[in-house]
UniProtKB/TrEMBL annotation:
Organism of derivation: Streptomyces pakalii
Record flagged with keyword Oxidoreductase: no
Keywords annotated in UniProt: Endonuclease, Hydrolase, Nuclease, Signal
The protein, known as: Endonuclease/exonuclease/phosphatase family protein
InterPro entries hit by this protein: Endo/exonu/phosph_ase_sf, Endo/exonuclease/phosphatase, GPI-anchor_lipid_remodeler
Domain Endonuclease/exonuclease/phosphatase per the UniProt entry, residue ranges: 57-286
Signal peptide boundaries: 1-30
GO molecular function: endonuclease activity
Amino acid sequence: MSLRRRPSRVPHLLLAASLLGALLAPSAAAASAHRSPSGEPGRTGGAGGRGLPLRVATYNIHAGAGMDGVFDLDRQTDELRSLQADVIGLQEVDRHWGSRSEWRDLAGELARRLRMHVSFAPIYSLDPAEPGGPRAEYGVAVLSRHRIVSAENHEITRLSTQDPNPVPAPAPGFGEVVVRVRGLPVHVYVTHLDYRPDPAVRVAQVADTRRIMAEDRGPKILLGDFNAEPAAPELAPLWRELADADPGAPTFPAQDPVKRIDFVTVSKNRIGVRRAWVPESLASDHRAVVADLLLRG
C-alpha cells in the first residue's frame, strides 16, 4: 500500500445484508455431493456421527486483483461462487481505498453479487480523499448465507503500514461475527496476521487472538491468512484449542504454490472436519481453502 497517512484508531464496523441472502445452509445430501476441483473427495477428518453441515472457506482476494495483477472483480466473483460455501472469510479487502480497486466497496459488491450477508472489519479507516466522500478503508470481511446476528471489530497487535515510524500497538481488523446455523450460534472470526519475516508481531497477534476467542463459548471457526506455515513456532499456541482443517496442499503463491499460509481452523470437540481442499485458481495471488464441517451443539 502506498498511502502513508496515520490510520484512525477508532474501530469501525459495516454490517449489511443483501435482500436475497439465503438463511439456511445446504442440506447434508447437497454438501456430500460436492467434489474438489480434481473430481476426487478432499482430505477427510475423523468427523463421524451427527452434526449440522457447514461449508466454509477463506480467501485472500488481493484487493480484487488476480495473479496477473489485473483488477477483475467478475473473475473473483465467479471463483467465490464456485466454492458453494456458506461462510467465507476474506482478507485484503478494499472499501473506497484507492485507484487499484477503482475506489469500489469490494465487500459490499461481492455480498450483493453472491446474495450473501456481509460484515466488514477495517484495519485502516482513513479520511476521505475529498470532503464528504466515503472513508478509505482496508481490512477483512465475512460473507455468510446465514443471517449475521452480531458483529465486532476487535483490536489485536499490529505494526502499521500507514505510519512512517510504526511501533507495535493495538489496532482493529480482527473481525468476529455470530451466525445461527439452524438455531445454533456459531462464532466466526477472520484475521490477517503480520507478513514480515520477523515473527515477533505474529507472536503477539496469536496471544491476542487466543485471549479474544476464549471469551466466547460454543462452536468457533477461525479463518484467515496467517502469513506463516502450520509448523511455525508462533502458531503453535493456536493448536491448543483449535484444529487445523488441513487441505493437504499449498496456497501461496496461486501459480505454482509452495507453502500453505491460508487456514480454516475450528474449535476442537465442537466441530468436525469432513474434508478440506484447495481449488486451483489464479483469480488472486492466493488460493482459497475450503472445508466441509459438521457442527456439534
